[in-house]
Design brief:
By secondary structure, the chain is α+β, with helices and mostly antiparallel strands. The chain contains 12 helices and 11 strands. The strands form 2 sheets. An 8-stranded mixed sheet has the order 4-10-9-8-5-6-7-11, sandwiched between helices. A 3-stranded antiparallel sheet has the order 1-3-2.
């Protein structure tokens, strides 16, 4: 008697990996074994289950998805990728606010691949994010923030000195703080032409997010409104494209500040 398809898909990690691997086309068994780092003896029983449920066909030693398999995997893959981002640390993501992400980007949250939750030490708290932008020769930095680093002057001067364009969206509250406490610094940054300042006049329900040509960093607020030092770090191209779209979402409702 055949198993329910949901059991076939999700009750075996090997079966799930095979289906996702074959989504990109037919594969010889040796290629499948190398990709999954397993043995023929361990994998053959799982391949048999997939064939019995008409998800996979094989000829000689090559396996491919059936028409049913292609249809099922096309629907299965986005769900698995979405679940993967929450599996990074469900306690962190479950206790922090992600409602600031617009619905169309929440549906694409699966694009944040190969992420990690970083908990910096107290000594690294204000220097760690700065080091990301210096790790490689990035050309642009984008940031939306409620928060100003104590060593902002060093960070921005080094970026400007390296000919890096900084696109910086701040909350109305932070803009007022900049005007009253950091006027000369930010006026200089703006006049360099490499520092693009914007103000977002609606509420920002997160501490900040930033990305450059290589990384995206997101620091969420807790659901109770408090903040902690943990942040999400992702480095794939899909993650960067998602981050650019999130930045553009806030940019469209922001006003450029050409002088203070």
């Amino acid at each position: 008697m055949n198993k329910p398809l949901c059991n076939v898909l999700f009750m075996s990690e090997k079966r799930k990996q095979v289906l996702l691997l074959l989504q990109n086309g037919a594969k010889e068994m040796e290629a499948v074994l190398r990709s999954l780092d397993t043995t023929r003896q361990a994998l053959l029983p799982q391949m048999k289950v997939l064939e019995e449920h008409h998800l996979v066909d094989h000829y000689e030693d090559t396996y491919e998805l059936t028409t049913i398999g292609k249809l099922v995997v096309e629907e299965m893959a986005p769900l698995i990728n979405t679940v993967d981002i929450f599996d990074v640390d469900i306690n962190y993501l479950g206790t922090h606010n992600i409602d600031f992400i617009p619905p169309h980007l929440l549906k694409r949250l699966r694009e944040l691949k190969n992420c990690e939750i970083v908990n910096p030490s107290v000594t690294e708290l204000y220097s760690l994010h700065k080091s990301f932008h210096e790790q490689k020769n990035t050309e642009s930095v984008y940031k939306v923030t409620n928060f100003l680093y104590p060593d902002y002057r060093t960070i921005f001067n080094e970026l400007i000195g390296s000919n890096v364009t900084t696109n910086y969206i701040v909350s109305q509250h932070l803009l007022e703080k900049i005007k009253t406490e950091h006027y000369e610094d930010f006026n200089y940054f703006i006049k360099t032409g490499l520092f693009k300042l914007y103000v977002y006049n609606n509420e920002l329900n997160f501490l900040f997010f930033t990305f450059d040509d290589f990384h995206i960093v997101i620091n969420l607020l807790r659901k109770d409104g408090d903040f902690d030092s943990k942040f999400i770090l992702c480095s794939t191209q899909d993650s960067l494209e998602w981050g650019k779209d999130l930045f553009d979402y806030y940019l469209k409702d922001s006003i450029p500040i050409t002088e203070l």
